[in-house]
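Bench notes, afternoon.
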Amino acid sequence: MTPQAQWFFSAAELARFASQRRVDELLWATATGLKIAFLVAVPLLGIHLLLRSWGERLGRALPAGRLAAVLQRMSATPGAGRWGADVLVPVLLVALYALLTAPLDFFRGYLLAHERGLATLSAGRFWADWAMALGQGLVLAGLFGLGVFALARRLARSWWLALWGAVVLALVGFAMLAPYRARLVHEFRPLGPGPLRQSLERVLEGAGLRAERIEVMDSSRRTRLAGAHVTGQGPTRRVVLADNLVRNFPPREVAVAVAHELGHTLERHPWRNLALEALGALLFLFGLHLALRHAHRLRALRLRPGVDPAVLPVVLLVAELLFLLHQPLAVWRTRAEEVRADAVALRLTRDPVAFCSLFLRLARHNQADPDPPALSRFLFGSHPAVMERIRTGFAWAAAHGIGMDRQALPLALPVSQLSVKQGKTTGTGPLAGRTRPGS
């Protein structure tokens, strides 16, 4: 018999998760519409010219001296203070958009997350994280503008290829340094000795991989969501477990979660994704190159011939529209990667019961719709639906002669974990640890 969502979730749970999914999709549509409206309004209302003017005024206002001379030489501009537009056009675009979407970010990331019981961070911590992310974005935007437009003036035809090489190196560096960048936001501790660590080390050994460390991240300081990931590459690779996963999930399920993440590494998904990011950067820079050379012919934009940083919002608008057209293909690709990682997890653990139990518990713990409609999967399904994964687990068990019964799912939590699991439990049998609808 084919597993059905009604076997594992009550009607009330299914209705609640479906309602939350629809709200999330509406919020995504709202955020996307705001971004497109912003990028349309900036050139339509002449704001791109205003940003350019402000930047040049700031550049001219800087007292003449060594710093001003260095910036002028770096920007390779003929007019005094023109370097200011290179920096401020992208910086002010990022800042204005961040201010425009801040209320939506707060609603989605704080109010709604707290209403659903998924967030633990305070309002102060939310805004501190928001400000930190914005600050990093502004610095990167300023460096991007100063570097890109200056290089475009110096190497009129080949600048985008030269810059693309630097971007590829930066992407590799960011991937290698990811474990260390995460320490700016989170705290980590080594996973202590015990049955869980031994189980994870066996999974790593079965995968033929080594990890510099197996660590637990303090996710509970901000959220109740549970998960795991493998970060870093080569000598910097680490297995990272959310503390919510360690506290609220049986060790067998944690082992499956780690095996799944290792599956991405074995299938070389991080490197493929990095290659696709590099390809996306190449296309974006080539598009920017064409815009810098030809956009001034669109008289309505009132752009200067040559390198004019005011063209940036137009390029971003075109890139966003192309991204939207590409989204169904992107989610199909990532969904296919998840399917392959699931197959590796089953092969490494040979535990289809824990595999199915993990995704059942994740759906309930993270409040995900286990069986969304086809259109939702097509547009937003970057991961297989939970019920697809359950059917995969049952099919794998049948193919390998392993008996499975729906009464065995989800796995019972150990007594030590029942004391920290949120919500009420419904007994001590195979369904122990399942939260009651609405709890």
